[in-house]
Design brief:
Strand content: 15-25%
Order of helices and strands: HHHEEHEHEHHEHHEEHEHHHEHH
Oligomer: single chain
Number of domains: 2
Length: 353
């Protein structure tokens, strides 16, 4: 057992509930540690438990079908440091109904998502776009990017060799799935940089699987950001960033959380047990002790128990195969709709294969 965790356990054993000092115990934990999340809305929620950080603006909007949209705008470096996200805009779609595999709802989400992406990109009629599908196509929870790329209406070759077959309102779109370092031996950032230098797109859109803090956001959420992305960040394996600084052109990111840490699931389960215990047995010793700790401090203790024995796994729901198929189609439809304004939704259905 980790030495810090062992000292905490012994400290708990000697405590009377009324003698607990939060700082005595919590000071033995790393304050910078927090549940892993790639979602700006979750990072903001974690940061605002004690106070609202300055330099961050948040607004929400609800649409028919249970589509909840949150917009987080990190305006200052102070705000970026407070929530641990780069300066920029983040839009999060939360749609619990996506788990029901409702085709009508998926169509509504694709349309709303496409409109949001179109506003985000703000492209000219002759702009060209490169879409990068990040991830490993052989690992289902990490295969979102390649799955989306397969369903895009790519047109760069058509503009060059068969321009007469294209409708007015189509843009130059190219796409690539560069694979992962362990398979290619090449950093994803290096591959994408090389392609950007040759193809010279006006913008890059990176699509990747993410990690969430809340279990209820896995398989129900889509995030758009104008800050770029770090491949592998969802599983704690950060690679070279893909952003405007590294690529020389605006880089947008689309991500869907497909995994959550085992420590998070264990923490949420224990929180439910403590809540039930508190209701059934008011003023019991266990809840009196744990009431002195913040949610992050409880999570830190659970993580430190799991990690030394290799049990802080990245967990994905058992329906992940079906979900990746569904959400990849939703994202691809939205992108096809946004990138080719000359296409109607009916056209998009035909071209999203």
């Amino acid at each position: 057992m980790d030495s810090r965790m062992s000292s905490l356990v012994h400290h708990f054993a000697d405590l009377h509930p009324d003698d607990v000092s939060t700082r005595d115990v919590a000071s033995q934990l790393e304050e910078s540690d927090s549940p892993r999340t790639d979602l700006a809305i979750e990072a903001h929620e974690l940061a605002t438990r004690n106070s609202s950080p300055s330099g961050v603006e948040v607004s929400t909007e609800d649409f028919e079908g249970g589509i909840h949209v949150s917009r987080v705008h990190v305006r200052t470096e102070k705000g970026a440091k407070a929530i641990g996200k780069k300066k920029g805009r983040y839009v999060t779609f939360e749609v619990p109904g996506l788990r029901r595999r409702d085709p009508d709802l998926q169509q509504s989400v694709a349309e709303r998502f496409g409109k949001e992406i179109e506003d985000f990109l703000n492209l000219g009629p002759d702009s060209s776009v490169l879409v990068v599908g990040l991830g490993n196509s052989s690992v289902t929870p990490d295969s979102l990017g390649p799955s989306v790329v397969k369903q895009l209406f790519v047109t760069r070759h058509l503009f060059r060799y068969m321009p007469e077959v294209l409708n007015e309102g189509c843009r130059t779109v190219s796409a690539v799935s560069p694979g992962v370092l362990g398979v290619t031996g090449i950093e994803t950032g290096e591959i994408v940089q090389g392609i950007v230098e040759h193809v010279k797109p006006d913008a890059v859109i990176a699509v990747d699987a993410l990690a969430a803090r809340a279990l209820n956001r896995v398989n129900t959420t889509i995030q758009i950001a104008d800050t770029g992305i770090q491949p592998g960040s969802g599983v704690g394996n950060r690679r070279k960033a893909l952003d405007k600084e590294t690529l020389g052109v605006p880089c947008f990111a689309i991500g869907v959380p497909t995994v959550v840490e085992a420590a998070t699931i264990a923490n949420d389960s224990i929180e439910l047990v403590l809540a039930q215990l508190k209701q059934a047995v008011p003023d019991n010793a266990a809840t009196k002790i744990f009431d002195h700790f913040s949610p992050t401090e409880k999570w830190q203790m659970i993580r430190e128990l799991l990690e030394p024995i290799g049990d802080n796994l990245m967990v994905t729901p058992k329906e992940i195969d079906e979900f990746i198929d569904d959400i990849a189609r939703v994202v691809a439809k939205g992108l096809n709709f946004a990138l080719h304004p000359g296409l109607s939704l009916d056209d998009v259905d035909v071209f999203t294969h």
